[in-house]
Amino acid sequence: MEPIQLFQLASDKAHWLSVRQSVVAGNIANANTPDYVAMDIDPFETVLNSVGSRMAATHPAHFTEDPLRGSVRADTGQDLNVSPSGNAVSLEEELIKAGDIRKEYELSTGLMRTFHRMMLQTVAK
């Protein structure tokens, strides 16, 4: 029987959601910056398949590289309605993304809470 890696997967998903939220927040913050192009992060499934193993930090002074930062790219999925200043950020699209991130986070934490409760019940009996 293989060990259950659900908690690690949930932790990776939460980290991905955190990085995506910071990218979306950066897009919203730069909504009036001339020539700014909206950014987004690769889908979680793509990032999960490409991350693989990485070096462990065994000492607090060790630097660690965030593998998800490399998956930030220009967002080509939007209708690029470029303003006269050259800005291609749609606040409506960014707010929709922020709402989706919140829903995914709530779903992930709800599933983890349920799984944790289920594990506690099986151990207690």
Description of the molecule:
By secondary structure, this protein is mainly α. It contains three helices and two strands; from the N terminus they run αβαβα. The chain has helices at residues 6-29, 44-51, 91-124, and strands at 39-41, 72-74. The chain has a two-stranded antiparallel ribbon with strand order 1-2. The model has no long low-confidence stretch (mean pLDDT 79).
Which SSEs are present, and which pair or pack?
Blueprint: H1 6-29, E1 39-41, H2 44-51, E2 72-74, H3 91-124
Antiparallel strand pairs: 1-2
Helix pairs in contact: 1-3
Low-pLDDT windows of residues: none
Helix percentage range: 40-55%
- State which percent range the strand residues make up: under 5%
Shape: elongated
Instruction: Report the count of strand segments.
Output: 2
Q: Which structural category fits the helices and strands?
A: mainly alpha
Taking all Cα atoms into account, the compactness measure Rg is: 18 Å
In the sheet with the most strands, the strands line up as 1-2
Q: Tally the helices: what do you get? A: 3
- The termini sit apart by 21 Å
Question: What number is the mean pLDDT?
Answer: 79
Largest sheet: 2 strands, antiparallel
